[in-house]
What we know:
Elements (H helix, E strand, L loop, with lengths): L2 E5 L3 E2 L5 E8 L9 E7 L6 E7 L4 E3 L7 E6 L4 E6 L8 E8 L13 E5 L2
Parallel strand pairs: 2-10
Antiparallel strand pairs: 1-3, 3-8, 4-5, 4-9, 5-6, 7-8, 9-10
Amino acid sequence: QVQLQESGPGLVKPSQTLSLTCAVSGDSITTRNSFWTWIRQPPGKGVEWVATINHLGITFFSPTLRSRTSIARDTTKNQFSLHLRSVTPEDTAVYYCVRGANPGTTDGPRGQGTQVTVSS
């Protein structure tokens, strides 16, 4: 049974870069046809897909966040990470990592989530 655990700073200043890591256990991020995704949920809003990296390291991005987002993986640690540049208070959200079946999906086993607040 796959387990995912997010980690990262809870508070980021505006204009800085948000960096989060997802540690995966019970599955490999190189498992064929697997998709490893970041999603977020701002306060009072619905879930939003951010980015996905698949088992080959191919990346997919939300069109609205693409210009500020990168996603990477470390296969030796079985982890993947998210970097969101030039953050604003609108990036405040609970961020989740998800083991999905397709890029762009928000469904699937997920971590418990990590609250990120953008504030000076």
